Amino acid sequence: MYHHVTKFEKNLAKFTGAPYVVATDCCTHAIEMCMRHDKIKQVKSCTCYTYLSIPMTLVKLGITYKYNDDRWIGEYNFKGTRIWDSARLLHPKMYRKGQLQCLSFGNGKPLDNKRGGAILCGSNKEYNVLKQMSYDGRHLKHKKWIDQKEFQVGYHYNMAIEHAMQCNDLLEAYKKKDGHLPHVVDYPDCSTIKIKG
Asked: What is the mean pLDDT of residues 137-163?
């Protein structure tokens, strides 16, 4: 059954031009894993106009950050990193070489599946590490997790099989649309709130 997730990852990789794609349960968790993977300690700045889960994640990970007032369309970069929040963008050949781009398939997103996310990445090594991280530290070669005797710390952030099946169908329909413009949304200013760690 897990082949449905792999099928979606391959289809999304082909559409976006990314060498590899890791499907996740949401964009926020995709961003979290990328921050952990790259051992980010500081974000020079990121837009204050974003969803609440972004500063929450940075606080949770102990990452120091500052806000900027960039009004973004489609995606924005966490300055000083190679990580992108691409939650509102989905178009052919969108992959940026050497970067980690995190997509969302939540409510109102270009691929609206109510739930889901993905990471566009450039190497098989990155794919394997991020995939294992998203899948409770599991190696996909083991059908039963109990057969694996050694684990790196992982997270329960993998995409559900039924979501992968739905996303695959939605992606096929999305490919047929004329143009793939980013969704523009006015996010509130997160710099006006305080988050207690």
From this structure: 91
Q: Domain range holding 127?
A: 3-139+155-178
Alpha carbon 77 to its chain's center: 13
Rounded CA gap, 195 and 192, in Å?
Answer: 10
CA 24 to mean position of chain CA atoms: 7
Cβ atoms within 10 Å of 68's Cβ, excluding its own: 14
Write out pLDDT tens, residues 168-190. Answer: 999 999 999 877 777 777 899 99
Per-residue confidence (pLDDT) for residue 180, from 0 to 100? 79
- Cβ atoms of 190 and 54 within 8 Å: the answer is yes
In degrees rounded to 5, what are phi and psi of residue 42? -145, 135
Sort strands 117-121 and 20-24 into parallel, antiparallel or unpaired. antiparallel
Q: Could you tell me the CA-to-CA distances from 41 to 6, 45, 100 in Å, in that order?
A: 31, 12, 16
Q: Is residue 43 part of a domain?
A: yes
Identify the pLDDT of residue 61. Answer: 98
Provide the CATH number for the domain around residue 12. 3.40.640.10
* Amino acid, single-letter form, for residue 156: H
- 104-138 burial, b at 16+ Cβ within 10 Å, e below that, comes to bbbeebbbbbebbbbbbbbeeebbebbbbbbbebb
